[in-house]
Amino acid sequence: MVLRLLGLKQEKTYGKLDGEYLANGDPNPDFDIDDIDPDFHRRLGDGSFQLNDEPVTYNDGSRMVQGARPGAIKPSGSTAGKCDLTRIGHFLRAFFDQYKCTTGTAVEGVTYYTHEFYGREDQYLTSFHGWATFDIFQKHIKGLLLESLKLEVSDDYMNQNEEWIYMDEESDEIDQAEYDIIEVENDIPLMFYDITIQLDDEDINNPARVYTSFNFEGKNNFNQDGTVGLGSRRPQRQAAAQARDIRVSLNSYLDPSSLELIRGAEYGEKTITTPSQCKILKVPLRVIVQACENQNERLEMFFPKCTVNVEYSASESDEIETTFNLTALGTGTAELLDNSTVKTDCYCRLVNTVPEITYEIEEVATEP
Q: Do β-strands 195-199 and 298-312 pair in parallel, antiparallel, or remain unpaired?
């Protein structure tokens, strides 16, 4: 029996779940982590969580190691799986610092929610508690912070990869004979034909170019080194996010519809045939994700202003592949659901059946 899953639940404060501590800061004696369920479980294609606590050794004049002491604990993890519109919201919540949720109207008895995520300037991001299951034991991961998020799709499924840092962990053995198999529900992994790209002024319903791949990578660049100081091996404070780096690459093939954009990327303007003295091309990018099995669910990723770099090379008589590399700038604006506008590098609007992503736990079971 293979049990490899990841579950997530937003924390009330860094490293602490709702109800885990009393108002005065003391541990809640009625709190039992086994009574708390994550908001969802996701299949783990790949997964690892490590304390990175390598021993610090010394030789002191000998060719052999003479002793060792425990080193600093700076935990990190990596997870990967297929992307779907039910679970992507929690990862966007972890990556961006701004979040709003609006309850929509019911469609055929099903209520849909609109989740909005976008980047601003907050350094201390939302943390999560993780349930990482590895066949014979389960780890409780405290203070999960999303270091990087990757989305990749070409001619198959859209794959999703995450890099994490975290505060602490504990583990429990799994009795496979008594373990209740967890069903992963509402799981429609996204495919390449569920993705639509609108680069610059293209018609979203009739794009000028055929794109053969989409790659998104966002990094928060946490200062994990600044979390461990004198007096403790473990992280003593929440890591601060530094520069947010968002890059997108799109693959296409060289044809007349690409020439104007290639010129703009190389020369700074679309209408000139030599490099500009000082101008640089900046374009918007919109990515629409919508599984054909359920058209009511939808993710729109909007990058209001991006620089563009282009790469291409000829090889024998092969068709020339073109790669557009975009870097998102924080000087563009996006319109929110309430018609207000924000200045941001990326804005995501997700519609699905998942209620508001929150730290609140309805009830903590207690012993009679």
A: unpaired
Give the integer Cα–Cα distance in Å for 253 and 258. Answer: 8
* Closest among 355, 346, 334, 361 to 89, alpha carbons compared: 355
Structure tokens at 366: 């207690």
Task: Tell me the C-alpha distance between 199 and 304, whole Å.
Answer: 11
Q: What's the token pair of residue 19?
A: 């109800």
**Upper half-sphere CA count for residue 252 (Cβ side, 13 Å):** 21
Residue 298's nearest CA partner among 150, 107, 95, 147 is 107
Tokens coding 86: 């039910």
Domain ranges of the chain: 4-51+73-229+236-352
Cα 248 to its chain centre, rounded Å, is 14
pLDDT in tens, 112-143: 999 999 999 999 999 999 999 988 888 999 99
For residue range 237-288, what is the model confidence (pLDDT) as tens digits? 999 999 999 999 999 998 888 888 899 999 998 888 888 888 999 999 999 9
Identify which of 321, 346, 317 has the alpha carbon closest to the alpha carbon of residue 334: 346
CA distance 345 to 334: 9
Q: Is 96 within 8 Å of 74 (Cβ atoms)? A: no
Q: Flag whether the pTM goes above 0.90.
A: yes
The dihedral region occupied by 52, where left means phi > 0, alpha psi between -120 and 50, and beta the remainder, is left
Sign of the CA dihedral running 84, 90, 96, 98: positive
Task: Show the tokens assigned to 13.
Answer: 């404060």
Q: Let me know: does 245 contact 286? Beta carbons within 8 Å.
A: no
Residue 265: strand, helix, or coil: helix
Can you tell me the distance from the alpha carbon of 55 to that of 41, in angstroms, rounded to the nearest whole number?
34
